[in-house]
Amino acid sequence: MDMGTSALSKKPWWTLPENFHAPMVFHMEEDQEELIFGHGDTHLRCIEVHSHTLIQLESWFTATGQTRVTVVGPHRARQWLLHMFCCVGSQDSYHHARGLEMLEQVRSQPLTNDDLVTSISVPPYTGDLSLAPRISGTICLSVPQPSPYQVIGCSGFHLSSLYP
């Protein structure tokens, strides 16, 4: 199955309302934004296309120069990007290197279903604070519900509580 289409409907992901119900929203430090998206966000479009997501970057005038990041798209693609963001921001050299590999991958080629399954099976946090990326805010990843009549749930957590 192509990542850009739904398994059941074969419709492009952006035509399915459930991909927009609970966007992933958080704040990222300016230097991490430049590392991931490039100077002037030159890599933003290819990351969006290759991850089958839409990403909005909004600069905020804060003391730390944070950028508000909003991501919409298929649930597993958002999880993969969150894992990549966390690893890139990690102070642990192994996880940081893994994050840079993931970043190079999403910049150079479209993500496959195998990529998404592999990423989901390896949780980004194991209780080690060295894995805490330099991002903060509420990250919301809605889990697809079995019935369209149920309210979409949101499992949110605050990464900002990991920082002194």
Automatic annotation (TrEMBL):
A Pfam family per the record: MOEP19
Gene3D superfamilies: K Homology domain, type 1
Transmembrane segments: none
CDD domains linked: FILIA_N_like
Single GO molecular function: RNA binding
Domain of life the protein comes from: Eukaryota
Domain KH-like RNA-binding: 10-94
Homology family: Belongs to the KHDC1 family.
Name assigned to this protein: KH homology domain-containing protein 1
Taxonomic source organism: Macaca mulatta (Rhesus macaque)
